[in-house]
Task: structure prediction
Amino acid sequence: MRQLQIAILLLATSAPAQAQDRNDIIFQKLYSKLANVLGVSDVDAAGQVDALVLASPGYILDEANVDYNNPNGRRIVFNLIDSSLRPSWILRFSGGKTSDVYSDILTNHTTSVVTMTAQQRDNLTKARAIIFDPKTNSGFSQRYRNFADARRELAAEMEAVQTWQRANPNDSIPATMVARLSDAREKYDLVAEKNVILAAKATIDSLENLDPAVFWGKALDRYQTNQLPVGANFVPIYDFYPAYPTWLDQSVSWTRIKFDDSDVNTVATSSRSNWNAGGSGRWGLWNVGGSYGQSESRSSFELDAQSFSVDFEVLRVKIDRPWMNYAVFGSRTWKWSPASANDKKLISDGNTSESSPPDGIAPLLPVEILIARNVSLTGNWNTSLKTTYSNQRSGGARVGWGPFSFGGGGGSSYDETKERVQISGNTITSPAPQIIGLLVQVLPKSPDPNLTDYEWPDQSPVKVNGIDLSGDALQQYQEEMEDINKLEREVDEVAPQ
Result:
């Protein structure tokens, strides 16, 4: 699989302004400082392209409002990550789901006519015996899971240390962080035959798609066996590191970041703010009525301060999709079947230029979650903070400042007393953890079938329940299926299953 490009995306619910004012500039500078602290740059040494986007507001995670021990609570978190994203530095949902696009690939694709040599098939068989469980031949082996878990933990702890160092360049690393990193290294060093595992994985990634029947059959089985039952429905399972309970554990050290009015003049603005995906309107710092990922539902209100300071702690959480074979997106041995409503559409065009965002129906794939907690905002506000906040919160509306949520908007079942938002003088605090961002990968151009080197079968009529469709009938079927899918996505946004 070709190397995926990386970008970072933070949650927001509005679109960039056509004419900047001071609030807009502050928003961009906060974005840029976070990019620096998180180690996000426009182009890194490996040639990968990174970007940062800020939220307005985040999504509060409170055990009283998101019961992760309950399947429905897990569904809420999974859906936050599964929603397809518009290619913008301000997060907005496109209306679909990444898992739906992936499922469509698995069920509605056409493969090239390719064959493997006897040696290639033997190598693939040996590699699969190392990576996959011989009983199922699709689930991962314990040998590989031990390696993957240890590697993921070590990388996450190292990122946490590096983030802390960038935020506190003159201070010593906390002993608890060093201890966690040392423990992760010990676990990683205990994993045997890393070279054998990596060689087997590389063999599978390069050869598996040359055996279409096996490749697509195993991919579909992997997708179907990693689903969480929620009532009468199923949702794809996500695994996280650190695990969800850690997100709520105040005893675990996170990295503290401070941003104030002095940063507005000293922090260089990141060029990735050009990724506005055609958005319009003002960002605003103070906002009301915003809904996670829904830019159209929020509005700004004025509560300005010439001097201000916001400090908060952050945690990066790695995302794993046990149901997804990432090699699908880089494979050049498939294209859409005419039966797909996405036929002739790109999932991603692979573009990572500074001047324009990637295009496609789902070009961004979240790989990490950015969580903030213990947010404290202080300013010499031009009107009463407490009075303005209370007026905006009337009716239970969600209120936020930049990427941070200060409560509200949870509906009739939402327990506002659990938010613990407090106002004292010119300071407002919110201790609860909240999702304020996503690190995302820019997928390579996909589908990108190799029409020159591979042979492709003649396109036969599409069969639907025994009916052969071709020509005008096939085109009408595709158009009406697309309309139905669009309607279902819109309904799911209002009343999710």
About this structure: The radius of gyration is 24 Å.
